[in-house]
Amino acid sequence: MIQNSESKTEYSKSDDIWQQGNLVEIDIDDLTDSGDGVGRWRERVVFVPDTVVGDRISVRLVRVKPEYAHGKLHQIIEPSAHRIRPSCIVADKCGGCQWQHIDYQYQLEAKQNQVIQALQRIGGIDNPPVDRILAGDSDLGYRNKATYPLAISSATGQVQAGYYQKGSHQLINLSQCPTQDARLNPLLAEVKRDIQQRGWQIYDESRHKGQIRHLALRIGRRTGEMLLTLVVKDWKLPGMKAQAEEWLKRYPELVGVSLNRNGDRTNAIFGDETRCIVGKPYLREVFADLEYQIRPDTFFQVYTETAEALLQVIESELHLQGDEVLFDAYCGIGTMTLPLAKRVREAIGLEVQSEAVEQAKTNAELNGINNVTFQVGEVEKLLPQLDVKPDIVLLDPPRKGCDRAVIDTLLQIQPQRIVYVSCKPATLARDLKLLCQNSEYRLTKVQPADFFPQTAHVEAAAFLVR
Ligand SMILES: C[S@@+](CC[C@H](N)C(=O)[O-])C[C@H]1O[C@@H](n2cnc3c(N)ncnc32)[C@H](O)[C@@H]1O
């Protein structure tokens, strides 16, 4: 029997046990989209983080409602066959990953099911045509980007960087993270020591005081080039240039050090303005055999290799003839627009972040791709105004999915094919339901992909034909 931090085990068999603080014994038989295990106690549902299907556990009830409760794992009575020892020593506390205790093959199975269930339950699609999930070669060391909040240890006064504890804003101090590209680890361990020595103030979110909020690291997986960015409350950081030069000398693969200013009381990490202090404001990366420049503050898929594999599926599924007009809505820095532009007559990228669009244009120029244009703005506003009719629309919205106006416009302009890339199955299913109502579109294939091993997140591309 594996003991959790609490030690006492007392069970009541009666119904009055359904109260906060009490212990119940359950079997975990499902996982939620957010990664929690799900079990039942006398017809009532209990959600328990850090568990997996097949675990028999005792759980302390935390937030109790008449029909369901959230609980905290108290004791593993019988571990599931899918339970493994996490690779990370702080996995049980750190909010960065939810699934380090689950073997990777089962993570993939659970993600595949997450997509199928969302399409069935929310999308109303009986037998969704879901292919086997795509996975990269490694379930660790894959992240090309890491963004760490900073804090001061109340015990030692030392600068700390890491991830927040599950469900809180208490920081877990890390000197390495097994999911990030290992080449970034030395910077994580050492940069906070330099910040300490400079005497720079760490931002305190409760008082909105202090200066440095986050340390952001990014690496080009193919080139090894790295960027270091400090997110600050305002620009004043005495000695920053000298420190940035020292970092550039110390880490040969580091090509640029930047500051990003975020002066707001917000949980958003980056603010609107980024200034390069020394070196270059971007790193170079190779993706789908094209060269890209990637800035510190624009979107780029975190698992480069699996994103590339998904793009290959999209390319082959579209059977491009070379005479198509393609819209890439939510195009970021043109990561998918550019390889697809090479295979069609004309491509138009739509993106709200002006820095990303600037970068997308530069990336097109870098690769000599001149049948592509980019427009800055919200897809919901731009799409109805375009006077070109697309044959194919690629959608890749954030987690909240597409604005209703985007779906309505698509149903009006009726592209022959739609490819919907999504990082949240629930909103994908909601939007597919709208697109497929009245049989306007037929769903031909859904390709899940694991862009975030060790977490409950799953990506999926859905293919629709009119
Ligand atoms: C999931 S990322 C996809 C980026 C790109 N397709 C890629 O593969 O790198 C979503 C992008 O949509 C942009 N975005 C978010 N809301 C938007 C909106 N309403 N209109 C246009 N772009 C938006 C974000 O800035 C981000 O670049």
UniProtKB/TrEMBL annotation:
Active site: C423
UniProt domain TRAM: residue ranges: 17-75
EC number: 2.1.1.190
Record InterPro entries: MeTrfase_TrmA_AS, NA-bd_OB-fold, SAM-dependent_MTases_sf, TRAM_dom, U5_MeTrfase_fam
Keyword Ubl conjugation tagged: no
This protein's UniProt keywords: Methyltransferase, S-adenosyl-L-methionine, Transferase
Gene3D superfamilies reported for this sequence: 2.40.50.1070, Nucleic acid-binding proteins, Vaccinia Virus protein VP39
EC category name: transferase
Stated family: Belongs to the class I-like SAM-binding methyltransferase superfamily. RNA M5U methyltransferase family.
Name of the molecule in the record: 23S rRNA (Uracil(1939)-C(5))-methyltransferase RlmD
Organism: Aerosakkonema funiforme FACHB-1375
